[in-house]
């Protein structure tokens, strides 16, 4: 199997992390059970550039259950969980190209390795797959049915391309959905901000006065 990760021996630890996260993702579990029966993505080659974390791993498991042929690279090298990458490869048979802290050259090598399967669908978190397709891998565009984009920044990039008339295939702006906006952008970022303040100031809320 084709992959580039830090250490395949971390797979056991990664599987534990993935299964723990799965317990908090009931909707995805329900979709995976349906996908296992219906196989709606059978034969679809899907390349994804996302945060390589336990949550993403459960998304990959769901897409694979639906029949998709998957390749995953990291949209942010700093968020990559190396043990999760190892588990995806060894335990779940997903081709992963991601190493925590990888340099610029490795980042783009991994993007191109994800694209080397000549995907029909892209999943982006920042539009780097789409950008690479439109600049250096235009020969692959004819294979693309469409894609998805998760972030505000990525959607801005894609809308700029659409306005310029250069966007060559349709992309769903996941970031525009109310579910994504509320759970991720508002509450997710809100929790992260509070957590950052608490870590930076070392304040214990339970002992803080008004």
Question: How would you describe what is shown here?
Answer:
The chain has about 210 residues and is of the alpha/beta class. It has a single domain, classed as Rossmann fold, CATH 3.40.50.1480. The chain contains 8 helices and 6 strands, in the order ααβαβαβαβαβαβα. The protein has helices at about 10-20, 25-40, 55-65, 80-90, 105-115, 130-135, 150-165, 180-200; strands at about 45-50, 70-75, 95, 120-125, 145-150, 170-175. A 6-stranded parallel β-sheet has the order 3-2-1-4-5-6, sandwiched between helices. It is globular, with a radius of gyration of 18 Å. The model has no long low-confidence stretch (mean pLDDT about 95).
List the main descriptive attributes of the protein structure presented here.
alpha/beta, 8 helices, 6-stranded parallel beta sheet
Brief sketch in words of this structure:
The chain has helices spanning 11-22, 26-38, 54-65, 82-90, 104-115, 128-135, 152-164, 178-201, and strands spanning 45-50, 69-74, 95-97, 121-124, 146-149, 171-173. The chain has 210 residues and is of the alpha/beta class. The protein has one domain (8-200): Rossmann fold (3-Layer(aba) Sandwich).
């Amino acid at each position: 199997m084709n992959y580039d990760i830090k250490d395949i021996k971390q797979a056991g630890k990664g599987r534990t992390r993935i299964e723990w996260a799965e317990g908090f993702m009931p909707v995805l579990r329900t979709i995976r059970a349906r996908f296992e029966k219906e196989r709606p993505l059978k034969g679809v080659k899907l390349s994804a550039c996302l945060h390589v974390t336990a949550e993403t791993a459960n998304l990959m498991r769901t897409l694979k259950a639906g029949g998709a042929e998957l390749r995953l690279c990291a949209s942010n090298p700093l968020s990559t969980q190396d043990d999760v990458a190892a588990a995806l490869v060894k335990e779940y048979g997903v081709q992963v190209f991601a190493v925590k802290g990888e340099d610029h050259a490795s980042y783009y090598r991994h993007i191109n390795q994800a694209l080397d399967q000549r995907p029909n669908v892209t999943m982006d978190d920042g539009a780097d797959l789409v950008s690479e397709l439109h600049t250096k891998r235009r020969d692959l565009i004819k294979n693309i049915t469409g894609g998805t984009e998760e972030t505000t920044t990525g959607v801005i990039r894609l809308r700029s391309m659409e306005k310029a008339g250069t966007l060559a295939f349709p992309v769903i702006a996941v970031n525009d959905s109310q579910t994504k906006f509320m759970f991720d952008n508002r509450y997710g970022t809100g929790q992260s901000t509070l957590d950052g303040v608490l870590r930076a100031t070392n304040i214990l809320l339970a002992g803080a006065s008004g």
